[in-house]
Amino acid sequence: MALRSLKRKTPECVTTYRRTNCKFETSINREIRFGGFTSSSVGSYASPHFGDQSCFEITTCFGAGISEFSQFESEREVLIPPYEVFKVTDIQKRSGENSLPCQVVYKLKSTKETRSTLNCA
How many CB atoms lie within 10 A of CB 62? Predict the structure, then answer.
């Protein structure tokens, strides 16, 4: 309920960015979800101290802006719910001739659908 209230202040869909030190195994056209509340930033990738193994360019339609509550207000933080489903649209790997922000960059686009096995009623 609280996330829905915050969502009213966020445009319908927004592109956000996330970086981490975790490795992920997925493929293009696969549907995934983060499975937990996930922090991301509008405009650009957050500080490299958050990681350089995996970066995500995420188009979220259920994420809510939480900058006013964030420890890192300048990062324009968006909280993505665990139930939002994304399609992997592209995967880029760092090589000698490109300057990606992480070893692997995943592009994710919301399917505008949700999936959860929890009954929170």
Answer: 22
The proportion of the chain whose per-residue pLDDT surpasses 90, expressed as a percent, equals 58
Candidates 18, 19, 33, 76; catalytic one: 18
Instruction: Show me where the domains of the chain are located.
Output: 2-112
Per the residue annotation, which of 33, 40, 75, 77 is the catalytic one?
Answer: 77
Is residue 19 part of the annotated active site? The answer reads no
Q: What CATH class is the domain 2-112?
A: alpha beta
When mean pLDDT is compared across 34-38, 66-70, 83-87, 102-106, the lowest value belongs to 66-70
pTM of the model: 0.83
> Among residues 39, 40, 41, 110, which one is catalytic?
39
Q: Is 77 a catalytic residue?
A: yes
Which H or E run includes 108?
strand 104-114
